[in-house]
Amino acid sequence: ELKVSFEAVSVGEGSTSLEVSVLDCDTVEQVKEKILGAFKSKFGFPYGQLREIDIVYEKAGHSLLLQEVDDTSEVLGAVTMLNTLRHYKVKYGASVKVIMKQAHAPLSTQVSLKDDKNFSIKYFHLIDPDIDCHQSGNPERKKLKLKEVYLTKLLSTKVAVHSYVEKLFKSIWGATNNRIPPAVKYFFDFLDDQGERKKISDPDVLHIWKTNSLPLRFWINILKNPQFLFDMEKTPLLEGCLSVIAQAFMDSFSLVEQPLDKHSPTNKLLYAKDIPQYKQEVKAYYKQVRDLPATSSSEFKAFLQEESKKHKNEFNEPAALRELYKYLQQYFNVIQEKLVQNGASSELKESLLQVKDLFTNLKSCSWD
Question: Measured at the alpha carbon of residue 244, what is the angle toward residues 239 and 250, in degrees to the nearest 5?
């Protein structure tokens, strides 16, 4: 356990000191990860990114910067052992301080060694890879044993997070008090109307339209990239876990039955028993949305206006208009043709030209 203090951070009236549980065999980077995790867990926001901080060991009035590799690192042949707390003789209850890298001397900063493409060849943590390779009596048996351990851990992790994953999925394809977001209802009704106009009788086509438009275009992006919504870092480990959950989500909307066997990918097998139930829930959700009373254009406009009022201080109109102009510029001829085909009024066509000219003139302006 370490007593950790933080440099130049304000979290209200609370103390900025933490006690963090670590192992003496942890590398410096592993210690940083545990410290940052403990800080965010206690205060509700991150102190900084892993690459932005250093940790200093404070003892008897002296400070020692802890690094993954330095002049004291143990070298065995062509490989270097990563420094651990044991290497630095950091004892139980020792005090360390977290500092921001830019606030320290330039020579103290150290780019992550894992950026080196030859990291696994040049460095090791607890076991020298060459020694491990030569002393393993039965490599195939060892590989099988590691796979068995991996699958056991994978299943136990799935069980641990299963209730949270189910709650998330049901909040996406569920209806609270038989209420659906007006935007979803309005858009799905639009797709249903297009199906009727084009005389599409196959319900699978409408299912695919809706799936490609909302779950696979919007929700998948959020599930795989939570940092878009939350102030957090998506580590490679977390990215792998989220990919498994996202795959289960996509499979829940699929109309294709995929035969699975022992050679199938592990992430597919992990949710194999849950997917059939999820598929039924998705179909029930689509039916529920369709059966609800239609949202009129006036109701939908009122909803959008109300949402705009709620977020008027957060919305950047110039940025939104620039994005609309990019779209207008790219598809201007197509939009003009569609207006002619649909018999649009001359006023609407004239307005389109005025908007395009206005943006073009603004774009050509400069302070030269």
Answer: 115
Task: Starting at the earlier edge strand, list the strands of the sheet with 95-100.
Answer: 17-20, 2-6, 95-100, 53-59, 62-66
Q: Which of 21-35, 41-55, 135-149, 271-285 has the lowest mean pLDDT?
A: 135-149
Q: Which CATH class is domain 2-135?
A: alpha beta
Query: What number is the average pLDDT over the span 262-289?
Result: 91
Work out the mean pLDDT of the chain and round it to a whole number. 85
Q: Of residues 215 and 237, which shows the higher confidence score?
A: 215
pTM for the model stands at 0.65
Measured CA to CA in angstroms, residue 175 lies from 60, 192, 215, 260, 308 at distances of 61, 19, 15, 31, 23
List the domain boundaries for the chain: 2-135, 144-306, 316-364
- Write the CA distances from 142 to 1, 127, 135, 136, 155, integer angstroms: 33, 15, 11, 8, 20
Q: Using alpha carbons, select from 70, 34, 72, 71 the residue that is nearest to residue 53.
A: 34
Asked whether residue 351 carries a pLDDT value surpassing 80, the answer given is yes
CB 100 within 8 A of CB 63: no
SS3 239: helix
| Residue-level length of the chain | 368
Select from 3.40.33.10, 3.50.50.100, 1.10.287.40, 1.10.506.10 the CATH code of 144-306: 1.10.506.10
pLDDT of 133 strictly over 60: no
Tokens 């109300």, residue located: 306
How far is 300 from 298, CA to CA, in rounded Å?
Answer: 5
CB 241 within 8 A of CB 235: no
- pLDDT-derived band at 104, boundaries 50, 70, 90: very low
